[in-house]
Amino acid sequence: MDITSKSRKEIGALGEQIAAHYLERRGLRLRDRNYTRKTGELDLIVEGQEAGGTLHFVEVKTLVCDEFPAERGASDAYDPSLNLHEAKVRKVARTGEWYVLENGWEGEWQVDGCLVWLRRRDGMARVRYLPQIV
Protein backbone atom coordinates (compact mmCIF):
# COMPACT_ATOMS: atom_id res chain seq x y z
CA MET A 1 0.00 0.00 0.00
CA ASP A 2 1.43 3.35 -1.05
CA ILE A 3 0.73 5.96 1.63
CA THR A 4 2.30 8.98 -0.09
CA SER A 5 -1.10 10.45 -1.03
CA LYS A 6 -2.66 10.12 2.44
CA SER A 7 -3.39 13.23 4.51
CA ARG A 8 -1.91 13.81 7.95
CA LYS A 9 -5.27 12.92 9.52
CA GLU A 10 -5.48 9.68 7.51
CA ILE A 11 -1.92 8.77 8.54
CA GLY A 12 -2.82 9.35 12.20
CA ALA A 13 -5.96 7.21 11.91
CA LEU A 14 -3.97 4.43 10.22
CA GLY A 15 -1.35 4.58 12.97
CA GLU A 16 -4.06 4.31 15.64
CA GLN A 17 -5.61 1.33 13.85
CA ILE A 18 -2.22 -0.42 13.66
CA ALA A 19 -1.53 0.32 17.33
CA ALA A 20 -4.96 -1.05 18.33
CA HIS A 21 -4.32 -4.32 16.47
CA TYR A 22 -0.83 -4.54 17.99
CA LEU A 23 -2.21 -4.15 21.53
CA GLU A 24 -5.07 -6.60 20.93
CA ARG A 25 -2.57 -9.23 19.74
CA ARG A 26 -0.80 -8.76 23.07
CA GLY A 27 -3.90 -9.53 25.11
CA LEU A 28 -5.41 -6.09 25.67
CA ARG A 29 -9.07 -5.45 24.84
CA LEU A 30 -10.05 -2.25 23.02
CA ARG A 31 -12.71 -0.37 25.02
CA ASP A 32 -12.86 2.96 23.24
CA ARG A 33 -11.01 5.24 20.85
CA ASN A 34 -10.82 8.97 20.17
CA TYR A 35 -12.48 9.94 23.46
CA THR A 36 -12.51 13.75 23.53
CA ARG A 37 -13.11 16.20 26.35
CA LYS A 38 -12.11 19.81 26.94
CA THR A 39 -8.79 18.62 28.41
CA GLY A 40 -7.78 16.70 25.27
CA GLU A 41 -8.24 13.43 23.43
CA LEU A 42 -7.48 9.81 24.28
CA ASP A 43 -6.39 7.95 21.15
CA LEU A 44 -6.95 4.43 22.46
CA ILE A 45 -8.42 3.07 25.67
CA VAL A 46 -7.59 -0.59 26.25
CA GLU A 47 -8.09 -2.93 29.18
CA GLY A 48 -6.00 -5.81 30.45
CA GLN A 49 -7.70 -9.22 30.29
CA GLU A 50 -6.54 -10.33 33.75
CA ALA A 51 -8.94 -10.20 36.70
CA GLY A 52 -9.18 -6.60 37.88
CA GLY A 53 -7.36 -5.58 34.71
CA THR A 54 -5.66 -2.23 34.33
CA LEU A 55 -7.13 0.45 32.10
CA HIS A 56 -4.56 1.86 29.64
CA PHE A 57 -4.89 5.30 28.04
CA VAL A 58 -2.64 5.05 25.00
CA GLU A 59 -1.26 8.09 23.15
CA VAL A 60 -0.30 7.05 19.62
CA LYS A 61 2.37 8.91 17.64
CA THR A 62 2.73 8.01 13.96
CA LEU A 63 5.57 8.96 11.65
CA VAL A 64 5.99 8.28 7.94
CA CYS A 65 9.56 7.33 7.09
CA ASP A 66 11.59 6.16 4.09
CA GLU A 67 13.28 3.44 6.14
CA PHE A 68 12.69 2.14 9.65
CA PRO A 69 15.04 3.51 12.31
CA ALA A 70 17.77 1.31 13.74
CA GLU A 71 16.64 -0.82 16.66
CA ARG A 72 17.10 1.24 19.83
CA GLY A 73 20.45 2.49 18.67
CA ALA A 74 21.83 5.86 17.78
CA SER A 75 20.05 7.28 14.78
CA ASP A 76 19.81 10.53 12.90
CA ALA A 77 16.14 9.80 12.17
CA TYR A 78 13.42 11.78 13.94
CA ASP A 79 12.04 9.98 16.99
CA PRO A 80 8.23 10.33 17.39
CA SER A 81 8.59 9.82 21.16
CA LEU A 82 9.83 13.43 21.25
CA ASN A 83 6.15 14.39 20.87
CA LEU A 84 5.36 12.54 24.10
CA HIS A 85 6.59 15.49 26.14
CA GLU A 86 5.49 16.31 29.68
CA ALA A 87 2.70 18.73 28.71
CA LYS A 88 1.14 16.23 26.27
CA VAL A 89 1.31 13.38 28.78
CA ARG A 90 -0.31 15.62 31.43
CA LYS A 91 -3.20 16.36 29.03
CA VAL A 92 -3.69 12.65 28.41
CA ALA A 93 -3.66 11.94 32.16
CA ARG A 94 -6.23 14.71 32.83
CA THR A 95 -8.48 13.41 30.08
CA GLY A 96 -8.03 9.90 31.49
CA GLU A 97 -9.34 11.20 34.81
CA TRP A 98 -12.51 12.38 33.01
CA TYR A 99 -12.92 8.93 31.47
CA VAL A 100 -12.46 7.19 34.84
CA LEU A 101 -15.08 9.42 36.48
CA GLU A 102 -17.63 9.25 33.65
CA ASN A 103 -17.37 5.47 33.37
CA GLY A 104 -17.21 4.64 37.07
CA TRP A 105 -13.86 2.86 36.71
CA GLU A 106 -12.60 1.77 40.12
CA GLY A 107 -9.51 -0.19 39.15
CA GLU A 108 -5.95 0.76 38.29
CA TRP A 109 -5.20 2.89 35.25
CA GLN A 110 -2.10 4.21 33.52
CA VAL A 111 -0.93 6.33 30.59
CA ASP A 112 1.04 4.53 27.87
CA GLY A 113 2.59 5.55 24.58
CA CYS A 114 2.68 3.72 21.28
CA LEU A 115 5.02 4.76 18.47
CA VAL A 116 4.19 3.73 14.91
CA TRP A 117 6.54 4.16 11.96
CA LEU A 118 4.96 3.74 8.51
CA ARG A 119 7.30 3.07 5.61
CA ARG A 120 6.34 5.42 2.77
CA ARG A 121 6.90 3.08 -0.19
CA ASP A 122 4.81 0.12 0.99
CA GLY A 123 2.90 1.12 4.13
CA MET A 124 4.65 -1.50 6.26
CA ALA A 125 4.64 -0.61 9.96
CA ARG A 126 6.94 -0.91 12.95
CA VAL A 127 5.44 -0.44 16.41
CA ARG A 128 7.05 0.28 19.75
CA TYR A 129 4.91 0.18 22.89
CA LEU A 130 5.90 2.36 25.86
CA PRO A 131 4.02 1.31 29.01
CA GLN A 132 3.54 3.72 31.92
CA ILE A 133 5.03 6.89 30.48
CA VAL A 134 3.81 8.87 33.52
From TrEMBL:
InterPro entries found in the cross-reference section: Restrct_endonuc-II-like (IPR011335), tRNA_endonuc-like_dom_sf (IPR011856), UPF0102_YraN-like (IPR003509)
GO molecular-function terms, A-Z: nucleic acid binding
SUPFAM superfamilies: Restriction endonuclease-like (SSF52980)
Family (UniProt): Belongs to the UPF0102 family.
Protein name (record): UPF0102 protein COU19_02440
Originating organism: Candidatus Kaiserbacteria bacterium CG10_big_fil_rev_8_21_14_0_10_56_12
Lineage: Bacteria, Candidatus Kaiseribacteriota
